[in-house]
Each structure stands twice: as C-alpha cells, then as structure tokens.
Amino acid sequence: MKRIHTLAVIVIAACIVVGGYNMDRALTRNAMDAQTINIAGAQRMLSQRIAALTLLYHRADPESSERYFKALKGAHARMLEGHQYLTQATGQSLAPAQSTQKLATLYSPTGRDLDRRVRRFLESTQAFLGVEQADLRAVPMPNFTDLDFLLADLDKAVSLYEANAKAKILAAERLLKQTILLALIVLFLVAVFVFRPMAKQASGALEESESELKKRSDLLSRAFDIAGMGYWLNRTDRPNELWISEELARLYKTNPVGQWLTLDQVKSLVQDQNNELLSKAARVSRATGTPQYVETRLRRGDGSFIEISTSIAAELDETGEVELITGVVRDITADVEARRAVEERSNDLKEAQELGNTAVWRFPIGARSLELNEDAYRLMRYDFSKMSDYKESADERTDKGTHLSRMCLGDSFEDLKRMSAQVFKTGQSGEVTIMMRRGDGTVADLSVRIKLQRDDEGKPIGFFGTMQDVSEQKEAERQLEQLAYYDHLTGLSNRALCMRQLKKLCNNQPGDGQDAALVLIDLDNFKEINDGLGHQAGDEFLCEIGRRLSHLAGPKNLVARLGGDEFALIIRDARSVDRVTSLVSSMLAAVAAPLQLDSAELVGGASAGICFIPSDTTSASEALRFADLALYDAKERGRNRFAFFNSDMSDRLQSRLSLSRDLRLAIANDELETHFQPIVSGKDGRVIGFETLMRWQHAERGWISPSEFIPIAESSHLIGDIGQFALKDACQHAVAMSEVTGEPIEVAVNVSAAQLWHGDVEQMIANALSASGVDPSLLCIELTESVFVGDSMDRVAAFLRRLKARGVQLALDDFGTGYSSLGYLNSLPFDKLKIDRSFVAGVDVSQKRFQVLEGVVGLARGLGMKVVAEGVETAAELAAIQSLDCDFVQGFFFGRPEGQSQALAAIERINGQAQDNAAAHLRQQVEQLEAVSRTALKGKTAAAS
Ligand code: C2E
Ligand code: CA
Ligand code: CA
C-alpha cells in the first residue's frame, strides 16, 4: 500500500518537473530570441546611422564637425558591442555560449556572409575614425557600396530569427499541453489505485481513534481527580436518582461508582452539611433553567470533611424543557482555607490599622463634607453613632466643611487645601501633616495621605486617602527639636535656631527697605555675678534676663540665648531706626533693673549691637558679624549702651585686631616701658612719688598712647600681663629710687576694671610686693569709678579692704568724670582722691571753676581723704590750687611722665626748686621779720630817745 502511494507521488512530481522544465525552456528561449532580434534590428539602424554620420562629417564645417565626430564614435562603439554580443559568448544569461553557432545556422545560408559584411563595415569605420581628427578631411570617405547588402542581410536575419522564435514558442506550448495531459492521466491512475485503498484504511483508523478517545477520557478523568472535581447527573424523568461519576465517587470516598443511586442512598454515603442549600439550588436551576453555584461543607464516606462547590446547570431539550441537571462538584477546601486566611489577615490588618491609628476618608468633588469611616471617628475620638445621626441632617452636613476648618489648628486647614490642589494638579498622591482638635478636646497630629479618585474614564471625581495619628511621633520630634533648638536653661531659642531663622529671614528679603534687624545683647557684668555669687545665682539671673527680654520682644520677634551671657533678638518688622532704638533701649533698661534673689540683689547691665537686614547685609553670618562689631563698638564707648552697625566699624576692628597682634608681640619682646610722672606735695613742693604710666614704642607707628592700647589690651585679655609688669616694675623702682634719694618714694599704679574682672590682681600685687621687698605703704593702687559699674560694689569693697589690710594705699582716679554718685565713697577705704584734670584746667581764671574745685576738695576732706590735683600745667593753676590747700599736685607743670633716670633728675630738680623756694620763703620771712624788728627797734629807739 505504501509503495503504491510513494510511486504515485513520484509520478506526479516527475510530470510537474518535466512540464515545468519545458515551459521554462520555451519561455527562456523566447526571451533570448527576442533579445537577439532587438540587437539585430539595432545593428541595422546603427549601420545606417554610421553611414549617414560619416557623410555628414565629411562635409561638415569645422564648428559642427566635432559634434558629428563624437556621435559617429558613439554609434560605432555601440555597433561593435552588439556585434560582439551576437558572435561571441558573453556569459550573460540571455546569450549562452552557443551564440556563434546559432548565428551561423540562423544566418545560413548567408550567415557567414553577414558576419563578414558587418565586420568589414565596422573595420572601414574604424579605419576612418582612427585617423587623427585634423587629417580626417584628407582621408576619402569609406566605400559603403555594399551597405545595401548589409542592410538586406540584417533584415533577412531578423525576419528569419523571428520566424524561428515563433516556431519554438509554438513547440513549447505544445509540449506544455502534452505535459498537463500526462499529469491528468497520472492523477486519474493515482485516484483509482491509491486513494481507494486509503479510504478503506480510514475506517480502521476510526476504530483506532475510538480507543484514543477512551484514553483521553481516562486522562480527563485523572485530571478531574487531580483538580478534585467530579460530577453528578439528575434526569427530569428520574428526579429522585443521581448518577455519580467515577471521579465524584472517588472525591466522595465511596465505593459504588458510575451508576444511578437514589437520593437516600447518596445521603447515606455522604452528608452534605448544607444539604438544604444544595437542593434549593437544584430546584431553582430546574425551575428557571439558569445555572446555580453553591458552596457547602461535606462529610465524606471516610468521615473526613471537605469544602465543596457545586455548579449546577440545567440542559434543555428541543422544546425548551429541562431534560437533565448536571452538578459539577469541586473540592475547594484549599481555596476556602486560603480565603479564610486572607479574611483573618484583613481582620488583622484592620486591627493593625486601629493599632497604627490609621483610618480612611473620602471627599467627593462637589461635596461639602468629608466622608469618614468608623475608624476615623474612633481615631478622632468622636462618637460615631452621634456622627451618623449628623449625617442624616442636611444642615449638619453642609456645616461639616466649616466644621473641618474649625477642627484644624494653625495653618493645618490651609496646608490641607494646598496639598489637595497639588494632588489634583499633578495626579500624584501627596502627604501632609496637620494638627486637629479631637472630639475630646485634645490635639492630634495627623499624617494625611491624599489620592485622586477617578471614574472609569479617568475623570477625577474626588479625593480619598488615609489619616494616621502621628501625635506620639510628632511629640518625640518636638522634644528632639526642643533639645536641638532650645536653650535648656532659659527655654529660649538657641544659637542654632537663631541662625536658622536668620538665614530664612535673609533668604526672604527682597533686597530693599529696613525690614528686619538683628540685635546682639551682651551682659556687662555676668562674670562677676557668676564668680562672686555662684552659678546658681548666675543661672537665675540669666533666666530672669531671658524672661524680661522675651516679654518685651513680644510674640513676633525672636529672642535667643547664643551662649554664656550673650543674647540675640531678631526683630522681624523693624520698620524704622526709631522703633528699634526704643525697643532696644527698653530692653537695656529692663536688664539694668535690679533683681532680688534670696542671696543678694543683683543689678545687671548690657550692651547691644544692631544691624539691619537687608540694608546692611543679606547674609546671615555677615549679619551676625556686623551686629557683633556694633556691640563691640558700644562696649568700647562705655557699658550699658547700644550701637548701630556702620561700615567704618569693620575697618576700625581690622586696625584694632592688627594692633592687638602687635601688642601681644610687644609684651613678649619687652617693648613696653614704664614712665614716671612726679607727684608733688602741696605743702612743701617736694616729690613724694610718681605715677607709673605705661609706654609702648611701636616699630612703625612710634609712641602709642596708653589711652589707645590699654582698651585693646583690656578687650584682648592682654591687660593681665601689662598689669603684672607695671606692678613689678613700679615696686622695684620705688625701692631703687628710695635708696638713691634716701627718702621714701611712692609709686602709683593704675589698675583698670577689666583687670579686676579677668585675672587675679590681688595675687599680682602680693607677688610684686614680696618680690621687690618694698614697703606696701609706698604702693598706691589707682582705680577709676568704672569698677563700680553695675552691682559689684560689695565685691569691689571686699577687694579693696583686703588690699588695705596688706598696707597698700588706694586712690580713686579721675574723680568727677564717672558716675558722680558720691554715696559709696563713704563706705570705701580710699586714701586719696585724684581730682580729674577737667576740674583743674582754668581754675585760675574762672571763679566758678574755682568754687567747684573748692567744693570737691572740701568733700574729700569731709570724707577723710587726701586730695591729689591732676593735670596742673601752669604756675597760676598751681597757685590757685595751693590756696585751696591740696595735699598733692601732679601735672606737666612739674614734669611729664619720663623714664627712670629722668625721673631721678626730676626729683633733684623739683626738690631743689622746693628747697630754693623754701629758702627764698625763709629769706623773705627773715627779711620781713628783720623789717618788723627793725621797725620795732626804731620805734623803741624813738621812744627811748
Ligand atoms: P590717668 O591715670 O588719668 O593718667 C594720667 C594721664 O594724664 C596720663 O596720660 C598723663 O600723661 C596725663 N597727664 C598728666 N599730667 C598732665 C597735664 O598736666 N596735662 C595733660 N594734658 N595731661 C596730663 P597717659 O600717660 O596718656 O595715660 C592715659 C591713661 O592710660 C591713664 O590715665 C590711665 O588711665 C591709663 N594707663 C596708663 N598706664 C596704665 C597702666 O599701666 N595700667 C592701666 N590700667 N592703665 C594705664
Ligand atoms: Ca592714674
Ligand atoms: Ca587720672
């Protein structure tokens, strides 16, 4: 059978191949012949053209001859090409190698003649063309006498060829018809001898496929088993019976399979726990003809339980009546368990939501109120039952929008609206943390997630999202922030927060107008309080100052403690210099107001520096520096003041900085020198001692006045070193000069307030005394009233008493220039009062000044102090002062501050002068006495005679 089959196929294939080959050959030849005909025709035309062109060229004028020559060459080349094609094998598909041979037969009997003729024609043209163009005219025109024969031969060849080609196509067509006929015959034979036996075989295959089908149904049955499925049938004509499929029986774990059982029998085998449900579904399906689906629980034959689903479908007969009910049963135990797990998990989730304080909300566009779920009400501690009552009332519902705004605290409602707008615009979800008042009145921090809700077409229809109570987290953050941004002592903002606010302020400044100000406030005497009364008092003092400052600053401005005794004030709405001036003045006054502590009464003082933002700067760090410069300036000009920043300040600071650097070096290199100004007794005009005054010769700037460098030394903590040097040097000189003169020479040393606050002056004095071995009573310490600024009176008094106990003299310097509160003088152990030069100058010419000075001297006397008149420059001033009976006099009149040797010379000079004066005085007195006695003697003599 198979062999016949193969044979038939081979025969048909052979027919197709033969037919196809012949058809192809015929067509190929036809195409090839057509090509040859074309070329032969072209040759004919070309030969005519060449002949004509040659003639034209020969006769042409020089201008056009060039053109003809070119055309002639082209035509010749093409004809040569065509001839070569026709006579030689070119290897092209349409000109196989037999061309020459074919031409020979084709041209026959004249074929060879034609070839020769074409050749000759071409040769003569070639010869004509080969001549140099210039000589061409000299060459006779080729003889084309046999051109007519050539053309006739070509014509003949073409028509012969045409006829031949036609004959060949006809032959090919014939062959094609024969081939098709042959193929048809073969097909018939194949049908008779091959397909008939095959049809017979097909019935055998059917049997085979039945067994295949059986196999497949077994497979299906196994698949049923694997899927945990089975089915039953119930026919309308046998309503109380069920046909249980094998798989279902296996699922039921019962024995009898594949047969009709009565419903009771089935019930005895398996117990469906929801039997009612199942039979109801079957009834419905039967009655309505629609499929039903039920899930029930089943006790199987072996007693185990499974969950099953039954899909019940009714099959109708042609009349539309229900004929059969099928139930496809599936074991869905795993599904149900999984579903239960999911449910449990979602309950867990719900619980977790409650624990995580998360709730859901919705806000349809156009609605006026927020829809909250039950969790949300619980979260917000509202009574849900009451709130659902609210829902019923239209009034309350419309009120809820405003209700929400009332529940939100601070900027929360605005934040919420802003974020919703953003979500709407971008379509992306957003998150915002807001503060809301809960139902019980407490405040909650809520993290609200907002998403856009869209309909099926993607059109936004509202918002929805979650809300989470993050109060605890926020509280922790707040505490952290409190730690990071607030001063633990005063509760004010700290430096970090101050800087942050300042930066924010600077960034927001548009660039003109005096909109904000930074004020740096520095307490003048905090160190004394801290050192003198202890840290407890210091802390209380700082807290109180903080309270006073923030009270005055108000809620809009920020008061910060930057550290130590430094405070800052950011005035957000500074508006004008006057406004800032009045605020800062009131703050300084508040700091200076006495503070009563258990231990003592404190009187503070502060200085302030102010800079404006943005008119001075828009950089936070620069603002800080500028305010600091202004503060520095304020302190310089005396305490308890404030100063506005100006651009000179930084230049001044620069030069001060460089000077303080130089001063440090000068101290290290012993470039400082003590000079001595004599102090003279008002009684006998003799030198009782000197005031030591510091001198600094700067390498570039020459002599620098102590009025310039002492303040720098004070602010850069160099005053301690200078003071130590001054004390030591003075004591040594006192000893030396006393030795040289043989009389006690006192020295007065200036000690400034800064020295009392920074550094142990008492110890320095003790060291200087013991190192020199000088009699302590020869050392006089000069202090100005500035040491009593603020509250430190008690401390200074104690200090002075301790010095006094060491036997040192004390002088109050520059009296009359400072605080002029004389009350304290009574309680302080000053020995001398140095009346400032401003009282002395012009005392000889102004009656008024004389009276003032007289008053001051009288006061000092009343207080039991000796009086030193400073700055006496003229003899007249001296005379006036002497008439007031001053104890000591000092001034340029006696001598300027000078080095040690000049000082010694000054003693000699002044004392000599005093001696002379005294001698003159004595002489004068003697003369007066003599005159008196002479007069008296004269009188006596006169009386006697
Ligand atoms: P002071 O203690 O009031 O010193 C007196 C100042 O008056 C000295 O200026 C002195 O040269 C000047 N003087 C004295 N007699 C006359 C006079 O007849 N006419 C005028 N026009 N001036 C006179 P000096 O030396 O420039 O010192 C200035 C200030 O520097 C001193 O004022 C003192 O407060 C301070 N000082 C100088 N040396 C020291 C020092 O070693 N330690 C401290 N803490 N301060 C010093
Ligand atoms: Ca002095
Ligand atoms: Ca003085």
Quaternary structure classification:
single chain
* Class derived from helix and strand content: alpha+beta
- Sheet with most strands: strand arrangement: 20-21-23-24-25-26-27-28
The biggest beta sheet, please?
A: 8 strands, mixed, barrel
- Unreliable runs, pLDDT <50, ≥5 residues? 89-100, 388-402
The total count of strands amounts to 28
Helix content: 55-70%
Bound molecules: ligand C2E, calcium ion
Beta-strand level of the residues, as a percent range?
15-25%
Mean pLDDT: 81
Number of helical regions: 29
Measure the end-to-end span.
Answer: 211 Å
User: Cα-atom Rg, whole angstroms?
Assistant: 66 Å
Shape: elongated
Q: Your description of this structure?
A:
The chain is an alpha+beta fold and 945 residues long. Helix content is 57%, strand content 19%. It is built from 29 helices and 28 strands. The strands form five sheets. An eight-stranded mixed β-barrel has the order 20-21-23-24-25-26-27-28, surrounded by five helices. Helix 16 (526-533) packs antiparallel against helix 17 (535-553). Bound molecules: ligand C2E and calcium ion (CA) (2 copies). Ligand C2E binds at residues 677, 693-694, 705-707, 710, 726, 750-752, 782, 813-814, 837, 871-873, 891-892, 897.
Describe, in short, the structure shown:
The strands form five sheets. The chain has an eight-stranded mixed β-barrel with strand order 20-21-23-24-25-26-27-28, surrounded by five helices. It has a seven-stranded antiparallel beta sheet with strand order 3-2-1-7-6-5-4, with helices on both faces. Strands 9-8-12-11-10 form a five-stranded antiparallel beta sheet, sandwiched between helices. The protein is α+β, with helices and mostly antiparallel strands and 945 residues long.
